[in-house]
Amino acid sequence: MQASHLEFIPNRLRLASRGLILAGALITASSGAQAEAGDDAKAILKAMSDFMGSQQTIELTFDSDIEVITPELEKLQFTNSGEVLLSRPDKLRAHRQGGYADVEMVFDGKTVSILGKNLNGYAQLEAPGSVDQLLEALRAGHGVALPGADLLQSKSYDTLVAGVLEAKHIGRGVIDGVECEHLAFRNFDTDWQLWVEVGDRPMPRKMVITSKTVNNAPQYTLRVKNWKTDVVPAADAFTFTPPANAVQLSPDALADLDELPK
Q1: I want to staple 121 with a disulfide (CB 3.0 to 4.6 A). Which of 78, 175, 189, 247 is the partner?
Q2: Does residue 224 have a pLDDT over 90?
Q3: 22 found inside a domain
């Protein structure tokens, strides 16, 4: 009987060769699973974007936390709450209140007005166009970060996946009693997670953004508490009337209406 070639290989080498074969199979399976999870994550994100973009009006309330790192490498967290009313394509009212800022923004499709209630001052600038264009103008031209606002864009998927290096569908979680799909994405300088409501109303319920290029990796967290998509806004919902004694500020002052102490 002719001997098998493996019979002349020492036992340790035979085990090693089997281990390599098994490891290769596991790596291949793992890579396939990761690719599938990534495709699944992007499909869920796209479904969320399509649903949100198809809503004519959206009303929500939220809590947000932002972490900062002090020069002494101490991590501090600051918390805000607020509400948003959006009427596509070109109407928006938003209010955010925290310990260091109380800010209201009203956009009527032509002019955006931002009132710093704690400063008793407001700024206005012409910004004709859609809400999508307004968000981009505030970020690019006035240094207003607006984290989480991407979720309100009419085509949020295109913005959110830009720069994504890796996507994962982690599984499911529960946010305020609502079952959600848990997604995780990696960009070059940030990691971010998103929880999307399960079912035929795939709304975002929570978002966490981690800054990887800053010491101690501070995070921004947004938790959506209530969603309404069948709202009929009041006739004056997007009309801005400044308080009688409020001072008009330069648009450059918008960057100072921050949720953090100086």
Answers
A1: 247
A2: yes
A3: no
